[in-house]
Amino acid sequence: DWHELYCAGHFFEAAASYYQATGKRKILELACRFADYIQQVFGDNPDQIPGYPGHEEIELALVKLYQVTNDQRYLDLSKYFIQRRGQKPHYFDIESDKRGEKPVQDYRYHQAHLPVREQTTAEGHAVRAVYLYAGLADIAYYTNDKDLLDTCLRLWKNVVNRRMYITGGIGSSAHLECFTFDYDLPNNTAYTETCASIGLIFWAHRMLKLQQNSEYADILELALYNGVISGMSLDGKRFFYVNPLEVWPEAAEKRYDHKHVRVTRQSWFGCACCPPNLARLLASLGGYIYALVNESELYTHLYIGGSASVEIAGKQFIIKQDSKLPWEGKVCLNLELPSEIEFTLALRIPVWCSCPTVKINGTAVDIHEITDNGYAKIRRTWNNNDRIELDFPMEVKRIRANPKVRYNRGKTALKRGPIVYCLEQADNGDNLHSLILSQNDEVKVAYNKQLLNGVSVIIADGMREIDNWEDVLYKANFREETIRTKLLFIPYFAWANRESGEMLVWVRSC
């Protein structure tokens, strides 16, 4: 019920990645020997252990070994670990008994409360959960298991519709770093571990392989630009393990139930999973931008500048992307083809954009007739130097939470494009809870290249409560007085890169 197989899984992923990057097999061969040994130890034969990992990770890692070796045994072992989880008698109890320890108290923590195919809600340790769900999606894809796909869909809907923060953060409770229950999304005690948002990206990416639906790419993008990169300082040297949506420094310092909240990023952690997880995600980001489906459809999931090599119908070509996101919605794709090629280019229409436009070589395309599951699908014979221009207007959107999220009743958050915004004390003074955002007043967007390495800020009209209470704790029949003020919002990912202070995502509104 601990981390041995989790550590093995990370080693397998490293070995597969090193082989893919260098072509050298030495580390891959070590990983395969280790995986072969694990396969000998675990299984349903009398001389084997009918167990599974305490912290999921090896499930998706074994699939990566399968991808680079084409050895079916690794896929089968991943499926075995998934199938055994939650079966009775509980293996963790057998294991604890042999160690002379008390049995596991809460199987939900390990996602072992039910057999995987019977689970309907995201339970337990959030990072473990999404690593498991990524493994489920992998096995569903490679074995064409419709039942596992249905399980993934049920769990996905539960997470993103009822248990996910606006930042793409998941895992609301510091106790056991876990999911709690539907709509329980407190802001100031949110745990939302960086690794959990990274795991959500892993899962979303695999769901895109199962179903080409832009919802998965939208969540992937949301988590990337908010709940993930908030975990690292702008200079790349300090890190957040926990990513709350509201911070009151004095509470973080003096309240036991806030002890997990940090006002400034740390240089390292005793349990240092988040920094290297960030490093490997950012290093592999190119693999998340495009996907080739059915050998003749090229999907564009993310709009991030760079070049990629693609092979269609036996022809290799280059697709170059120039993207102004996340500050502007201008994207340009250029095709460098050896000769004309017929294929479908599927362009994601972001959920945050209400009036996108697409041009091919300067001619507008009516995307309303060709959009399917959130992608504008353009099939044609493409030629060298064809140019696709995308324009995604990025208006500021006022976001409200489902009324069942009690912590956000009467509050609004601001979002522009994929970026969630927040108030920080450095720009708005202290007592951020006394600020009120006017619903109907104008908001302005301005790019400030001197601020936080260059960010777009939102300037909004608002009000501040006048503090005329003096040394009185309670008053009868009190009517608050306010003064007009300007509110300056910065991207959530950039908070805590200046002096320490308060931070707030959800703002009182009127």
Mean pLDDT comes to 96
Radius of gyration: 25 Å
Largest sheet: 6 strands, mixed, barrel
The best one-word shape is globular
- Classify the helix fraction into a percent range: 25-40%
Strand order of the largest sheet: 14-15-19-18-16-21
**DSSP E strands, number:** 21
Helix run count: 12
Spans with pLDDT under 50 lasting ≥5 residues?
none
Distance between the termini: 49 Å
Strand content: 15-25%
Structural class: alpha+beta
Describe the structure.
With 510 residues, this protein is α+β, with helices and mostly antiparallel strands. The protein contains 12 helices and 21 strands. The chain has helices at residues 4-22, 26-41, 58-69, 72-84, 91-99, 126-143, 146-162, 194-210, 214-228, 249-254, 274-283, 425-428, and strands at residues 246-247, 290-293, 297-300, 306-312, 315-323, 330-336, 341-348, 357-360, 363-365, 371-372, 375-382, 387-391, 396-399, 411-416, 419-424, 435-437, 443-448, 455-465, 482-491, 503-504, 507-509. A 6-stranded mixed barrel has the order 14-15-19-18-16-21. A 6-stranded antiparallel beta sheet has the order 4-5-6-12-8-9, with no helix packed on it. Strands 2-3-7-11-10 form a 5-stranded mixed beta sheet, with no helix packed on it. Helix 1 (4-22) packs parallel to helix 3, helix 6 packs parallel to helix 8 and helix 8 (194-210) runs antiparallel to helix 9. The chain starts with a helix and ends with a strand.
